[in-house]
Specification:
Blueprint lengths: L21 E9 L7 E9 L9 E2 L3 E7 L6 E5 L2 E2 L9 E6 L5 E3 L5 E4 L10 E10 L6 E11 L7 E4 L5 E4 L8 E4 L1 E3 L9 E7 L6 E3 L5 E4 L9 E11 L6 E10 L5 H12 L11 H56 L5 H12 L9 H11 L29 H8 L30 E2 L14 E2 L34
Parallel strand pairs: 4-11, 13-20, 21-22
Antiparallel strand pairs: 1-2, 3-6, 5-9, 7-10, 8-9, 10-11, 12-15, 14-18, 16-19, 17-18, 19-20
Helix pairs in contact: 2-5
Length: about 500
Amino acid sequence: SINPDSGEIRVNTVLDREQRERYEFLVVAADKGSPNLTGTASVVINVMDKNDNDPKFMLNGYNFSVMENMPPLSPVGMVTVIDADKGENANIRLSVEQDNGDFVIQNGTGTILSSISFDREQHNTYTFRLKAVDSGDPPRSAYVGVTINVLDENDNAPFFTSPSNVTHEHITPLSSPGTRITQVSAEDIDSGVNAELTYSITGGNPFDLFRISPNSGDIILEKEILRKHHGLHRLVVRVNDKGKPSRHSTALVHVFVNETANKTLLDTLIWHSLNTPLEIDIAGDPEYERSKQRSNIIFGVIAGIIAVILVIIVVVLVRYCRQKEAKSGYQAGKKETKDLYAPKQGNKNNKSKNKAKKNKSPKLPKPVEEEEETGLQKSLKFNLMNDSVSDSPRIHLPLNYPPGSPDLGRHYRSNSPLPSIQLQPQSPSASKKHQVVQDLPAANTFVGTGDNNSTGSDQYSDYSYRTNPQKYNNKQVGDLFLSTAGTDKNIMWTRVW
C-alpha cells in the first residue's frame, strides 16, 4: 500500500521470492487545484532472496547396485539435490557422512565414486549418508541415505569340504551293486546361479565300477566286484558351478576293495596315489595287471619263436625243391640221351613183319632224292652262329653224338632260365635242295660258355667265345632245307645262352 500524504509504499503481506520475485504497478499523484492536475509513475519492486530454504534431494533415499571386482574410482551412482534459494544461498556442497574413505562424491554432478574394488564375498552391502549444505548465512543443509549393493560375479571356484584327499573308504568284494559308499560335499561362496553345484567322476574309474549323483554327491557301487577290481581305487571327483564361465575344483576319493584293510598297506598305497599324476589310473590289483603283462610277454616270445621256425622251414623247403628240380632236369637230359642212342628192340619184330610183307605186292622204290634226304638227316650237324660280332655267343651242338655222350642241348633246355626258341625249317629253293654244312668244328665239340653242371667225356674240349672267334660273318651255318616230300617237316632249334 502507499501513504496518500507521504507516498510511502508498504508491504501488506509477507513476500516470498520463491513464489513471486517481481512486482510492478502504477502510482498516480494529483494536486488539489482547480482544475486539479495529475501525474503517474511506474513502480517495480524486486523481492530479494533470503536463505530461507534448505537443500532438497530429489529422492528420499538412494539404492545402487554394482558388480564386484570393479576397479577403484568407478562410478557407483548419481544423486540430485536442489535449493529453491538463489545465488549463494543455492550454492550446495555435497559430502559423505561417516566417511571411511570407501566412497567419494563429486560436487556439481552428484556422482558417487568408489575408492575401493568391491568384493561381494567380503562386503556385499554399503550404507552411508550424503549431506548437502548451501552457502547461505546461516547455511542450511539436508541429508539423504544411500545403500550400495554389491552384485555377485562368478569369481570363486567351489571347494570340497569332505572327504579329505588322504582318507579312504573300505568295501568288501561281496558288496552288491547299488551300495552307497560315501558322499562328497562342496561349497561356493558366490551366490545365486554361481553357487549351484554339480558333481562328476572325471578319472580313476577305468572299469566304470562307481558312479556319483550329480546333485547330492553320493558315490555308489555300480557293478559287481571281480578279482581284477581288488585293490585301491583313486576316484577323481570334480565339482562345477553353473556360473558363466563355470568354475570347478577336484578332489580325490580313495576306495579300498579287499576282504581286510591293513593300515600300513593302505598308508603306503595312499602315499603312492598322492604322488602319482592324475592322468595315470592306479585302479585295481597291481599284481593282477603285472601277471597279465607277463602273460602277454610270454605269448609274444612264443609267437616270435614259432614265426622264426616257420620261416626257416619254408626257406629249407624252397632250396630243397630248387635243387631237386635242377637235378631232375639234368638226369632227364642224360636219360633221354641214352634212350636216343640205345638200340631199338623192335628191330626183330620188324624183320618178321618185313618177311610177311614180302608176300604182298612190291612197293615202288623210294626216289633217289628222298633217300639222299634221309641220309642227310641221319648225319645232320647244325651250328647256330651270330650274325654280328657284337651278339652274345651261341652254342654249337652236333647231332651225331656217340653213344653214352650227354645231350647238352636238352640239358641246357632243362636248366637254363632262358626260353627256348623254335625255328621252323625253310622250304628249299628250286635251284638249291640242300645246303651242306662245311668247316664245322670237330665232332662232339661244345663251343661257348657253359655252367658248372655241364659234363662230358674226356675227349671233348671246351672253347669259349673269346678264344674261338666267329669264323663265319653274316653267314648262318646249319640251315637245313628239306623238301616238302620229307616225312619229318619240323625241327626243334634250341638257342642256349
